Amino acid sequence: QVQLVESGGGLVQAGGSLRLSCVVSGRTFSNYFMGWFRQAPGKEREFVSAINWSPGTTYWHSYYADSVKGRFTISRDNATPTMFLQMNTLKPEDTAVYYCASGAVAGSRASDDYDYWGQGTQVTVSS
Length: 127
Hints:
Order of helices and strands: EEEEEEEEEEE
Shape: globular
Radius of gyration: 14 Å
Number of strands: 11
Helix content: under 10%
């Protein structure tokens, strides 16, 4: 059974930082692509970031939504296996439930391309 478990959310003041983690089990982590999405109250789920990996190499590529580019950094550790989202200079508009997801389409920004999802972790940024 594939499971994705997020952690690291919380309450932070604007300008602060948080680091989200997503631990994957039941799936060969290095063979799949990973992404982060978020959903704010009353809004649709939106793409945040994705990371793809060339199996057997150390080459990887990351993708970001324009709204988080330069502030958020995605990374992954195939040995653990865990994906991270370092979020800096947080803004109140970053408040949302953040979800990690696993799929087979490299760097996709479409939620339909991800077939497994975590339960989400709440991030609240106060002004």
